[in-house]
Design brief:
This protein is an alpha+beta fold. 39% of the residues lie in helices and 19% in strands.
Length: 191
């Protein structure tokens, strides 16, 4: 079986990408902290990932494979102090959910480096396509872009099982957060 081509997402890919991410993050500690209610998780997670997609799709920094089955949403280096996640400041969320989203975003932002870097904000694969190496493939596309710029790459994960997966891909833990959810900040140095 040949690996499908890695492409840069366009607005036409939005529904497939968002659907894959909602399915991929059903058990993710951060997403379940942000959206703990089973009934509202699909709607709120779709709004969350849709916002991140819309914010970055015109920056040519979202790589996909398999028609959006696996996706890496990267944030290019920003000029000046801007929120990396760029979580929604409003939306279909009640006040308590919005407060959790903004609080998590603010906490992560303060833990990130102040120097320029490429930020891997989201990496996910639809469960139906898991185990094919597609996540690593779309991650590598962003890492190549960071390397071309001579910059490090940064990510954060709250899934303890992901820490070793990222380590095997060349990432190293450079910091941790205890609250609101245990989170590891990881970096891959410039190549």
């Amino acid at each position: 079986m040949t690996t499908p081509e890695i492409t840069i997402a366009t607005p036409a890919d939005r529904d497939a990408v968002v659907g894959s991410l909602v399915a991929a993050f059903v058990k993710d500690p951060v997403l379940r902290f942000l959206f703990p209610d089973e009934e509202t998780y699909p709607r709120y997670a779709a709004a969350f990932f849709g916002h991140l997609f819309d914010k970055r799709v015109h920056r040519s920094s979202i790589w996909t494979i398999g028609g959006g089955a696996s996706v890496a949403i990267w944030e290019p280096p920003a000029a000046g102090p801007t929120a990396v996640h760029g979580s929604p400041k409003e939306g279909p969320y009640p006040a308590d959910v919005l407060a959790r989203v903004q609080g998590y975003d603010d906490t992560v932002h303060t833990a990130l480096p102040t120097y320029p870097f490429w930020y891997l904000g989201v990496l996910g694969t639809h469960p139906d396509s898991a185990g094919r190496g597609w996540g690593r493939a779309v991650m590598r596309a962003g890492l190549a872009r960071a390397a071309a710029d001579g910059l490090p790459a940064i990510l954060e994960t709250s899934n303890p099982g992901n820490v070793e997966l990222y380590r095997r891909a060349g990432w190293e833990v450079v910091g941790t957060l205890a609250e609101p959810v245990p989170t590891w900040i990881m970096q891959q140095p410039p190549r």
